[in-house]
Amino acid sequence: MKAIIISIGNEITSGHTLNTNAxxxxxxxxxxxxxxxxxxxxxDNVKTLVDEIRAAVKSFDVVLTTGGLGSTSDDVTKLALxxxxxxxxxxxxxxxxxxxxxxxxxNRPMAPVNKQQADVPEGFEVIRNxxxxxPCLGFxxxxxxxxxxxxxxxxxxxxxxxxxxxxxxxxxxKLGIIRxxxxxxxxxxxxxxxLIDNSGGIGSPVxxxxxxxxxxxxxxxxxxxxxxxxxxxxLNAARKKLQKVIRPYYFGDDDESIEMAIGKQLRKKxxxxxxxxxxxxxxxxxxxxxxxxxxxxxxxxxxxxxxxxKVDRLGVTESTLVEHGxxxxxxxxxxxxxxxxxxxxxxxxxSTGIAGPAGGTKDKPVGLIYISLAMGSEVITSxxxxxxDRVRTQERTAKEMMTILWQALVKxx
Amino acid sequence: MKAIIISIGNEITSGHTLNTNAxxxxxxxxxxxxxxxxxxxxxDNVKTLVDEIRAAVKSFDVVLTTGGLGSTSDDVTKLALxxxxxxxxxxxxxxxxxxxxxxxxxNRPMAPVNKQQADVPEGFEVIRNxxxxxPCLGFxxxxxxxxxxxxxxxxxxxxxxxxxxxxxxxxxxKLGIIRxxxxxxxxxxxxxxxLIDNSGGIGSPVxxxxxxxxxxxxxxxxxxxxxxxxxxxxLNAARKKLQKVIRPYYFGDDDESIEMAIGKQLRKKxxxxxxxxxxxxxxxxxxxxxxxxxxxxxxxxxxxxxxxxKVDRLGVTESTLVEHGxxxxxxxxxxxxxxxxxxxxxxxxxSTGIAGPAGGTKDKPVGLIYISLAMGSEVITSxxxxxxDRVRTQERTAKEMMTILWQALVKxx
Lengths: 413, 413
What we know:
five-stranded mixed sheet, six-stranded mixed sheet, alpha/beta, globular, 41% helix, 413 residues, Molybdenum Cofactor Biosythetic Enzyme, Chain A, 17 strands, homodimer, Alpha-Beta Plaits, Maf protein, 14 helices
């Protein structure tokens, strides 16, 4: 079963926007056994798109288009669908109501041009875009299925994940491709490679890809076999072998993030968390609270940028700030203890450092970071140094706070 | 003058490798006035490639292919060129010497299969690949120029920069292309389109692309003319006209983010900022503090997840929480006022809402958000409703906080 992805937009053909939509779609198709055979990117031009659609439906089982579905002048997809399938646009009352409700909800007046969002090609399935205003359009023809998706990545992904994949799964063959990602933290890529290599590898025809990203290394395992069952058996054998080797670093699989793994640990061990952030400016808290249900264990955070806030909010002593400075092990430690005490949480964690690009000195260079973890009566402080740009240093520090926290949590029986 | 880029490789069609080569090539072509009209990505298959090449040379002035030039079984480009142009492979002695020298240089034995690198289609220009072993192949036909480049990005870029661009420049129409992005916030794509359309457009042959992303719409302007000077003059005229029309929403150009624009305003007007976040969990603060130098105007943030924290840290009254609930206009307003008072900042901004997925009720559904802005003695509260997933809702809310803040700041004389 073969698919083609047609991406529409001058931004992509000109090279100014990377075609990440097509890559994402190809991987999603592969996960249900449909091979993406061709990706075509064209400019916002009705005639070109008509030609592409006509050619595509002749040679492919699945045709996906992205982009050009809005109601501005560069949106050409609906016009092309109408021409390619010799139909006409009709106003869909349900979509019109949804578009009007959307504007009510976000509390903005609706421009008349938006009514056009409700004009759909006659004979097409209209699939609701719950995160935007342009619905997805589907058409089942002789030997092919076509879906026109919006170009805004999160809208497209939402519709694809919740609606289109289900429809495609009904017609897809059952190919034996099984993938699984094992996620590690607190170990670098080459050390992880050496660790696995020294253990004798996984001893099975399963492919491992090392995917490092900012303080974390994911291991993507791919097992391909004629049957799903045998591919899965091979993958499971490889996973079992790996689990033993990478145990101290392995926190979860696939879509599980380190913040989710931390949430699981806190919930399991009935512990609450609060944080005091200086150089990370709220980033640690925002990642922790991105997890649904985090209000069960996360109590509060203090982003104490000024010295005054460190004193007022956390009870850091003036003498510590004068003697050691705001970026010091002593201040980090008092911050962690301070947020633990004032919030009444079981665990307090803090960050203080120089994210840069300015503010560094010879003794305390840009990238110098202290992280403290207060747990029960203990406070452990780590000193780190990252030489990256401001945002990377903040991200790397927040990841390190999570690493330290997760490693401490798993040690609790 | 129009170009097509044909990218060859299963790893690209499957989505596991992003097609960064095509984007890079498109931008390079644009810089010498050649418009990349289409990008096609296909699998390693001779027949498919032959069809694509035959179709391409009929419709385009410039045809570039990348990938498939090596000497392993999945390298199909030379076979396809031979078929498409009805020629044959001949061994090129100069290339053979170069390949042998290359292996001497890197001090590795040369596998016999590498001799095939020196087999080139008869009648083609052979362009040396000084960073690898597969030479680039060029063909000048009736009304078209074709170049087959290697797929390894640095080899491809090296040959393109030093050899192919020179050749293409000789035939390119010497066009001047100038781009600029104007960024807006607080207005949707279609409303912005209507606004600009109603004003009579930009009255100049400058292309506008609308690039919406989560509460923000960027306008990318492209001006193409025979000379760079006239292209720039046209672009500047369009910008001037647009500036008047979109003024209430226009916050910056190109790489300037809304958080940078807010920083500029705060600095210019000598104002300080503090925030009290509930549903955004520190995201607003983390975005504000991602800007270098933000410690000059950002004092502190309180992430008050629990009611206790709202009372203890911000002075939200128990009676407000009991009567109206934590997610209410009253609580939002007391939070903004509270952080303004306790931090001593000029401006306090707050968020409270139900980010979901759980926690919604009939009266207060998931996605219900209140944002309050305390500035001097005034507090203004906005009610919003987003029905997206947790992270999108948090991101959209943080963006809305920035919109409200920026709009208030620009009004201050």
